TrEMBL record:
Record NCBIfam families: antiterm_UpxY (NF033644)
Residues that span the membrane, as ranges: none
PANTHER family recorded: KOW MOTIF FAMILY PROTEIN, EXPRESSED, RHO-INTERACTING TRANSCRIPTION TERMINATION FACTOR NUSG
Keyword Heme listed: no
Protein name as catalogued: UpxY family transcription antiterminator
Keyword field: Transcription, Transcription antitermination, Transcription regulation
Residue stretches making up the NusG-like N-terminal domain: 3-95
Amino acid sequence: MEKQWYVIYTAVNAEEKLYKKVTALGIEAYLPLERSIRQWSDRKKEIVKPIFKSYLFVRQSTDEYHEVKCLPGFLQYVSFGHQVAIIPDTDIRLMKSIVDNFNQIKIADGLVKGDKVKILFGPLGGHIGVLTQDQGKAKVALYVQKLKHSFMLDMKLDNIIKL
């Protein structure tokens, strides 16, 4: 049987436990982790947490597909419409390369510079703009038609969605 990469949506904070259970079955799994140093007044500590909350990537055959569903922490396979999402090997290799070679990775939920975005909350909630920068804090340009000028605003990524 040909093996393919699938995405599992896990229970809250169950990514690492499910990863261990899946790999104990001999199934290849990938859990992208972010490492960061937290500074307290008296010490520093390395914090390791999943980059994608509640997601685990597994490479399996259709026979193993149902075996994984029975494990504690498994909620469902991620799907788009009624089709279970299959992730190409090239995308997994890309993620591994990024995680292995870069620190402080931020996930932008599909947002890229130039995307049309909607502001969700605050005094500008509901307004439409264009994403002009997407590292950490986003810069959103809001165009005022009558003035023919744009306002460049710093926005948190969790306050905007792609249109």
